[in-house]
Amino acid sequence: MSLVKIKRAELKPLTKADRSRLRRVSEKPIDYSDIPELSDDWFERAERAANAASQSKSQIALRLDDDVIAWFRTQGAGYQTRMNAILRSYMESATILRRAR
After folding, report:
1. What pLDDT score does 72 carry?
2. Which is nearest to 72 in space by CA: 63, 62, 82?
3. d(Cα 58, Cα 81) in Å, to the nearest integer?
């Protein structure tokens, strides 16, 4: 699922039918029972996303398959940041696996 951004000016006014349908929407509370609570350990290990983004970056030339680039671009703005996050995740996983041997 990709994020679609719409400017407020592009929104159409709600119709009478839209308002009627919205009035019938249930306001029952969300069931969080299947979501585990976050432990103190989780919070101790957590990092703010801003910390990860503040690391210095280098601009490089990188050859990637056209279909790979096209797919990432379809994911919308920030696709290069997502590519970096995926590469970082792979690097960190490989490092952990290497240490475990």
Report:
1. 93
2. 82
3. 13
